[in-house]
């Protein structure tokens, strides 16, 4: 494959794609992306989490300067070559009255759930989205894994999302399940395809996206299916590296 670095962009989901869920990136994965892939292609990260959490997972507080693009909160907070190039606010877009109505209902729903454990921070407010977590984001890694297995069997998040869709059919909100323990809520069009608004005008001949939650309802689905990208479904960081090695002959 013959191409220039500035002609090819690779965008990566983080959780389950470059790292194990909510764990830090392995040094071997980081070394591969930075030292083998980045000299060949342009590289961007597209995460649903806020920038602080992405920096923790990528094990680098200065990651916005390390990668060509970093898109936090699905691209609602956008960096290019270390510079902030865009920031959107769900509070301004939706309005406080609607936000509180939604948050109050979600908290009421969760108060009726009985789970293996419950901890703290069930609603996390971010710039571009609201994160809803039935088990509570302050749970330990063991409790996170426990809920993930429980959720696979009992479909806690799927049923919760279905109920919210029925309760709020006219608010223009999207409910996207990602990671192990939570789901994101944001205005229609504010999924990970939002990041493409920044990169599609930069003249790339190909935009590749790598993600693990690519099925309908997953938070990688829209960008994976978008006609502007070439989507790659991965199952783990190891699978990501293997696909990249094959694709770009690394």
Automatic annotation (TrEMBL):
Leader sequence residues: none
Positions of alpha-D-mannose 1-phosphate binding: 22, 126, 137, 144, 182, 184
Cofactor(s) needed by this chain: Mg(2+)
Entry GO MF terms: metal ion binding; phosphomannomutase activity
Annotated Mg(2+) binding sites: 13, 15, 212, 224, 226, 229
EC number: 5.4.2.8
Catalytic residues (UniProt): 13, 15
Record function comment: Involved in the synthesis of the GDP-mannose and dolichol-phosphate-mannose required for a number of critical mannosyl transfer reactions.
Keyword Magnesium: yes
Transmembrane segments: none
SUBUNIT field: Homodimer.
GO cellular component, one term: cytosol
Location relative to the cell: Cytoplasm
Family: Belongs to the eukaryotic PMM family.
Keyword annotations: Cytoplasm, Isomerase, Magnesium, Metal-binding
Keyword match Cytoplasm: yes
Pathway it works in: Nucleotide-sugar biosynthesis; GDP-alpha-D-mannose biosynthesis; alpha-D-mannose 1-phosphate from D-fructose 6-phosphate: step 2/2
BP GO terms, sorted: GDP-mannose biosynthetic process; mannose metabolic process; protein N-linked glycosylation
Protein name per the record: Phosphomannomutase
CDD domains according to UniProt: HAD_PMM (cd02585)
Source species taxonomy: Eukaryota, Metazoa, Ecdysozoa, Arthropoda, Crustacea
Swiss-Prot/TrEMBL catalytic activity: alpha-D-mannose 1-phosphate = D-mannose 6-phosphate
PANTHER family per record: PHOSPHOMANNOMUTASE
């Amino acid at each position: 494959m013959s191409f220039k670095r500035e002609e090819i962009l690779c965008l990566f989901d983080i959780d389950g794609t470059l790292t194990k869920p909510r764990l830090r990136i392995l040094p071997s994965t980081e070394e591969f992306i930075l030292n083998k892939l980045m000299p060949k292609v342009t590289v961007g990260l597209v995460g649903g989490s806020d920038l602080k959490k992405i920096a923790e997972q990528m094990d680098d507080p200065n990651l916005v300067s390390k990668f060509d693009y970093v898109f936090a909160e699905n691209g609602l907070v956008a960096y290019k070559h270390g510079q902030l190039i865009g920031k959107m606010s769900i509070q301004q877009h939706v309005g406080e009255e609607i936000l509180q109505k939604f948050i109050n209902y979600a908290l009421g729903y969760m108060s009726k759930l009985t789970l293996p454990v419950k901890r703290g921070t069930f609603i996390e407010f971010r710039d571009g989205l609201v994160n809803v977590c039935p088990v509570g984001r302050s749970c330990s890694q063991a409790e996170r894994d426990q809920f993930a297995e429980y959720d696979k069997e009992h479909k806690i998040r799927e049923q919760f999302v279905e109920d919210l869709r029925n309760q709020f059919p006219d608010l223009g909100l999207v409910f996207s399940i990602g990671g192990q323990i939570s789901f994101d809520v944001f205005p229609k069009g504010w999924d990970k395809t939002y990041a493409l608004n920044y990169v599609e005008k930069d003249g790339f001949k190909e935009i590749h996206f790598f993600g693990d939650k690519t099925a309908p309802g997953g938070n990688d689905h829209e960008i994976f299916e978008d006609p502007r990208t070439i989507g790659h479904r991965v199952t783990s960081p190891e699978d990501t590296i293997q696909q990249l090695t094959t694709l770009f002959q690394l």
